[in-house]
Amino acid sequence: FLLDVLDNLPRLRLSSSQLKMVMWVMKHCNPTDVPSFSSFRAKQRRLQKACGIKTVQHTSELGHIFYVNDIRDIISKDFANPETAKNLQFYPEETDDSMSEVWHASRWREYPLDQLTPSYNKEGKRFYVNELSKLTDGRLVIPYIWIMYKGKVHARCRQAYNTEVCVIHVIIAFDELRVSVDDLDLNYLDLLQLEIPLTFQDQYQSYAEAMPNNYRAMDKDHDFFTIWTPLWADDVSGARSKQYQKHVNVYMSNSNLPGQLLQQEYFVHFVATSPHASAPELLGAVMTQVEDTHQNPVECYNAFTHRPCSFRIQVPNLPADNPQQSEECSHIGHHGLYFCRICKVGGSYEMKESDSGYHALYNTGQPRSATETLASIREQLRLATYGVAAPIEELQTKTGVKDKITQHWIGILITKANDMKRSQVGRSPDEISTELLAWLNTQSKLPFNPLLNVKYLNPPADTPVELLHTVLLGIEKYNWHGLHTSWSSQQQDLFTVRLQSTDLDGLNVPPIRAGYMMQYPNGLIGKHFKTLMQTVAFHVQDIVSDSQLTLIKSIGELGALLWMAEIEGLDEYLKDLEILIDNVLDAFATIDPSKILIKLKLHILKHIPDNIRRFGPAVRFSTEVFECFNAIFRMSSVLSNHQAPSRDIALKNGELDRVKHILSGGFWFQSDRWVRGGDNVVRLLQEAPILQQHLGWVSPHKPIPSSVRCAGRKKREQSALLGANTKAIQADWSDSSPRMSPNSSWYPGVEVIAQSGDRCAIGSWVTYLQDDHFIGRITEILTSSNTQISGSGLLTVERFSVAEERHHYLGMPVLYRYAPPSDGDDANSSAALSSQPYYQVIPSKSIQFNFNVQHDCRLAGCGATATERQVEERTETQREIKVIEHVDQPRFIINTHALHNAARLRKYLPRYLTAPRPLFSDRLKRHHELATVLRTSQAEKRAQTQAKAKATRERNKRKAQEARVVETGQIHQDDSMLGDRDEHGYYAQVVLPPRKRARPTSEAATDLDRVV
User: Fold this and answer.
1) How far apart are CA 869 and CA 1012, in angstroms?
2) Is the dihedral of CA 921, 923, 928, 931 positive or negative?
3) Counting runs of H as helices and runs of E as strands, what totals does the chain give?
């Protein structure tokens, strides 16, 4: 089995040759039971058949053949996997205006309520929605949706009343109740067994006809669940080299799992790939599997309840990058006049440059719908049967609807229509059109994007805006390009030095390679832009304009809000988000009013608030984890023989899932019972961090808050301190803490775990709780040398105070040294700026979380005046590089552009220090002013473009004339007869001699000459 694991590690793939060498080495180490390579492969095939993922062949409407891993099997494995099953959430949750998961959002509730998980199992008794039930207090209710509320399952019910004594005569009140499942007593079947007549008034017969629930006949007396499965698709290269080998891939995740888990590769599953078929073709095949679960629910084993269950699948959304989502929506793309796939904003150039049209680009327009898109596609097919392409292109331009599958059939219909016109002259165009439409119905059931025909899925609305390509590789990339291209080489060098000196503590970003980023400014990727978005504002003083600084600050503030995974106060959050999005758009417009005309990613930001309300926090529908999963696919492609790539890659990824399932203790059906691997196999994943790393799984075990980590034993003993030699002995101690003895022995700590789980080291900025919340910088971490004492310790922190006003340049909160009040002063009054540090000793359990703080270098006048030795190959060289020398000015800035702990920080700080401020109070007036500037600039650009095009045409004409002169053989070494050359090197005037042609000598020659 260990060989099987070694052969199926997603991040450490071995070729067959490498595996044979491993087995050869094993045989020469004299172990027992080393299989041959062929018997090993045979054993793998048997295991795959017993507990693997089924791979199914499909043929698309366009005739492309590809293979799909059955998502019904994939989700069955999620239920049978104890690491997954225990975390599955089946019911939407009601919260107090907070949001952190997809089930807190509204998307699930947009479905008909019976399409959600329809039942609840209480001690073996199943209660269904739309069925009469009785509570423990005797009341009658009809549940219509199951919900989570305060960690427990509840039912939203309509109350029913019994009006007679010996007969249950039901009258339904439309008062809503929220009832805990603990209060449920009898279900509908129990009421029938009471042998008491059950009747409904005439106006409530529709309720009676819905009982018992139809799903009782489908679930086979098993628990019945609804699983929500987003499907990601994109084109990916199957090669490691720069040569692009296009494959269209489809991955999936199970959004019944918490969002924190879905950021791990372990919970991402490969579904399909094809170098030939398009994404709609692949997704159409997957949708047939989804739709089948509604008629034939999938039976499986629930490893959490240890009971059989069944499920059906819903696809709530389609995450992808913007071009791919346009294809899935049958949209013309961002180069169209109506460039938004979600709404109908846009129009002709004249419209978009008008006052009203330009302002409309900064708002959401009329929503698109799958129904309207499908109607436009059907009209395009009808027009194609008349054999003329121009009306179709005009309709596509007018509506912004263009479908890749439909284009295939439009080309065929136009060709057949023209052939029929030539061969059947007497027939009317309408007759030909009718015949061709009938022919099309015999050729294809869906001559268009199959996603438009999926029940309860509306692709234009259900393709949420994702952060990686829209924000990091979108607006932040545009901003970065505008910055580095406007700097001189000296300014670029200064920015590089400043960026390299950034304090990274509390940012959770990889080490900054500022030299690389400035050397290759156009080759940065998402992680670089995420770092720049959080830090660039502190390093651009004196090298950017006011409008550029405004844009930098606007993007930084927006990014911090968008990456919040836990939202408290949803309504206020969305209002703040709308202000910040408007600020970003207006800041771009101030620099270049035409930017929004050519960059779709600016307008599409306006749809993010609605996406968050429907799908949860923006990080929950981010695609970064899918993009990372491309590396696993790519290795499967590299190690295949490329003869049947779709089949080989699907089979291999099915094996990867199988090994992952077995290692996780997953169950499978064998010999009439559910079995799993032995205890030694199951313990491998839990006890081997190297396996966890290669499987992309993060252990749920979290560090213990308030615990202190020290150096190794040898270093710890060498660095032991007496209490008299610590900073804590001179600091202010809280009243509740016993003072340190000068003769006590202490070990210096390396880091302490905050209540949030953050690892805080010396120099970290933290908030701590001592009767109230305060801010400080850790200067010392101590833990007792007495081994009998627990891992908690004492911290010495330098306390700081938050200024009442924001920073005048960056608009962020400011920190200054705390000065304790003098005798007679109010202890709660704001202290003045102190030149002396104030140290305080606190227990490690007081630390709440850390955050990022930067020195106020602009005010202090810090410059690149210091030098240090450059390190190469982990060795100091003789070369010196400049670094920032910080002036000892105790004034710091809280980095509110940082993504880490942004929600906690805003909860701690006063609202007036973090509330967003609109750039313009009257945006309509501002947009009209910009539209006036835009019309002038665009007119000048078009005039320049026309003049340039005219000059190019004339230059090409003269070039062709010169070529004709050369053909006649009349150019000699002395070419002065052609006149002078222009500034492009071409002759200004050429007089062509008459072209002489030979007289044809035969009829064939005459025909050939006519063709020429």
Assistant:
1) 73
2) positive
3) 37, 36
Helix axes of 608-615 and 570-591: crossing angle, nearest 10 degrees: 160
> Who's near 434: CB < 8 A, 6+ residues apart?
none
Q: What are phi and psi of 296, to 5 degrees?
A: -130, 85
CB-based contact 841:737 (threshold 8 Å) = yes
Strand pairing report for 863-872 and 875-885: antiparallel
Using CA atoms, how far apart are residues 304 and 280, in angstroms rounded to an integer? 35
Strand partners, 246: 237
Query: How many CB atoms lie under 10 A from the CB of residue 720?
Result: 12
Residue 816 pairs with which residues in a beta bridge? 801, 891
- Please tell me what DSSP assigns to residue 504: -
For residue 532, give the nearest of 898, 175, 852 by alpha carbon.
Answer: 898
Nearest to 558, CA basis, from 531, 585, 592: 585
213 near 189, Cβ under 8 Å?
no
d(CA 837, CA 820): 10
* Neighbouring C-alpha atoms within 13 Å toward the C-beta of 584: 28
Contact, 753 vs 784, CB < 8 A?
no
| Cβ atoms 465, 607 nearer than 8 A | yes
The string of DSSP codes covering 205-266 is HHHHHT-S-GGGGTTTTSEEEEEE--EEEEEEES-SSSS--EEEEEEE--TTS-HHHHTSGG
Q: 456: number of CA atoms within 13 Å, CB side?
A: 20
Model pLDDT for residues 91-144, shown as the tens digit of each residue: 999 998 899 999 999 999 999 998 999 999 988 889 999 888 889 988 888 899
Structure tokens at 749: 């700590």
* Model confidence pLDDT, tens digit, residues 941-993: 989 999 999 999 999 998 888 888 776 655 444 454 455 555 555 555 545 45
Q: Is 23 helix (H, G, I), strand (E, B) or coil?
A: helix
Element (H, E) at 908: helix 902-908
Strand bridging mode 140-149 / 152-162: antiparallel
Question: Distances in Å between the alpha carbon of 634 and those of 5, 63, 213, 274?
Answer: 19, 25, 47, 13
Two structure tokens written together for 513: 């390679």
Asked if residue 87 lies in contact with residue 244, where contact means CB atoms within 8 angstroms, the answer is no
